[in-house]
Amino acid sequence: MSNPAHEKIEALVKANDVVLFMKGTPLFPQCGFSSRAIAILDHLGLKYESVDVLQDMEIRQGIKEYSDWPTIPQLYVKGEFLGGSDIMMEMYEAGELHELAAEKGLAKAEE
């Protein structure tokens, strides 16, 4: 049984090295957690794709099932689910996100 939302999510996750499913957009995050996630990615200077779950109810529900994670934002790196903003913050503060970015050869944002 195919799930159109899961197929859409999988296509996004596979097509982009870094994908953040969030509430709002990078310029106008609609919650503090999404805002923190964007701040971390911007501080790392990474190129990323963002998906505003508020614009698509199927994606908003589907992403929670896809990752088996109840909250948004959700970060995917090279097709792998990393976690939400708390996990991102912990990894960032421990230097693990920097290491991961270098290890995975993630592209830097255009200056």
From TrEMBL:
PROSITE patterns cross-referenced by the UniProt entry: GLUTAREDOXIN_2
Domain Glutaredoxin: 18-81
Keywords: 2Fe-2S, Iron, Iron-sulfur, Metal-binding, Redox-active center
NCBIfam families in the record: Grx4 family monothiol glutaredoxin (TIGR00365)
Sequence similarity: Belongs to the glutaredoxin family. Monothiol subfamily.
PANTHER family: GLUTAREDOXIN FAMILY MEMBER, MONOTHIOL GLUTAREDOXIN-S14, CHLOROPLASTIC
Descriptive protein name: Glutaredoxin
